[in-house]
Design a protein that fits this description.
Layout lengths: L2 H26 L4 H23 L5 H4 L2 H22 L4 H7 L1 H25 L6 H22 L13 H16 L5 H21 L21
Helix pairs in contact: 1-2, 1-4, 1-6, 2-4, 2-6, 2-7, 6-7, 6-8, 6-9, 7-8, 8-9
Length: 229
C-alpha cells in the first residue's frame, strides 16, 4: 500500500469525523436535517474549497471528486436519523455523543492533521514551495477552514479562537513539513508522516490535559461573563 492510498483513506476518515462534528453542532442548534447536512458538508469540504480557490485550482476538488461530499452527506444523514429516532424513544442523544467524545476527537485530530499537511502539499505541488508563508497559511486554512465556516453559520465564535490547542497544532505541523521539504531534510513520504504525527500528538495531548491558550476571563467592565454556546 503506497502513501497516496494511505493518505486517501485518512482523508476519508477525517471527512467523516468533520461531518459528525457538523451534525453535533446542528443538533445543539436544533436545526432540521437539511441544516445538519449543510453544516456537515461545509465542515468536511469547506477548508479544501478555500485552499483550491486561493491556489487557483478551479473548480475545487470537492466538485471534481464527489467522493468527499458523498461521504460527508451520508454520514450526516445517518447520524441525524439515528439521533431523530433516539429522541423519539426518549434517549438523550447528547449523552450518547458525550460517551464517544474522545473517540470523535481522535478522528477529528486525524482529519486536522491530514488536511493540514495535504493543504501545504498542494501548495508545493502548485510550485509555491519557496513561499513558506503562503504554504503554511494554505495548510492551516485547509485544516481549520471548514470548522470556522461551520461555527459562523451556526452563529457562534469559532472554536479555534477560544478553546484547546487546535490551530496552533496545525501551524506546528505545517511549519515542520515546510522546513523538512524546503530544505530537503526528508523525502516527501517521511515528511508527511512525521508532520501528521506531530499534529496528532499535540491535539491528543491538548484534549487529554485540556490545554488552552491564556485568555482574559473578566474583561467586561460590568463584570458579566460572556455566555458559552
Amino acid at each position: 500500500m503506497n502513501i497516496d492510498t494511505v493518505f486517501f483513506a485518512l482523508e476519508l476518515i477525517g471527512t467523516a469525523a468533520f461531518s459528525v462534528t457538523g451534525v453535533i453542532t446542528a443538533l445543539e442548534k436544533k436545526l432540521d436535517i437539511f441544516g445538519a447536512a449543510v453544516l456537515s458538508m461545509v465542515t468536511a469540504v469547506g477548508g479544501g474549497m478555500l485552499r483550491d480557490i486561493i491556489l487557483g485550482y478551479l473548480p475545487p476538488v470537492a466538485f471534481r471528486k464527489s467522493v468527499y461530499s458523498i461521504v460527508a452527506l451520508s454520514v450526516s444523514v445517518l447520524v441525524y436519523v439515528i439521533s431523530y429516532f433516539a429522541d423519539k424513544d426518549g434517549v438523550k442523544i447528547k449523552d450518547k455523543f458525550d460517551v464517544y467524545t474522545q473517540v470523535i476527537n481522535v478522528f477529528d485530530s486525524v482529519g486536522l492533521a491530514v488536511f493540514t499537511i495535504g493543504g501545504i502539499n498542494s501548495a508545493h505541488s502548485c510550485g509555491f514551495t519557496q513561499n513558506a508563508y503562503l504554504c503554511i497559511f494554505v495548510g492551516l486554512l485547509t485544516g481549520v477552514g471548514g470548522g470556522v465556516m461551520r461555527d459562523v453559520l451556526a452563529g457562534r465564535v469559532p472554536v479555534i479562537l477560544k478553546k484547546r490547542i487546535y490551530a496552533v497544532a496545525a501551524i506546528a505541523g505545517a511549519l515542520l513539513y515546510q522546513i523538512l521539504t524546503e530544505h530537503k531534510l526528508l523525502s516527501s513520504a517521511p515528511a508527511i508522516l512525521l508532520s501528521v504525527c506531530v499534529i496528532l500528538v499535540i491535539r491528543i495531548l491538548a484534549t487529554v490535559f485540556r490545554w488552552n491558550l491564556p485568555s482574559i476571563k473578566d474583561y467586561s467592565r460590568d463584570g458579566d461573563k460572556d455566555k458559552e454556546d
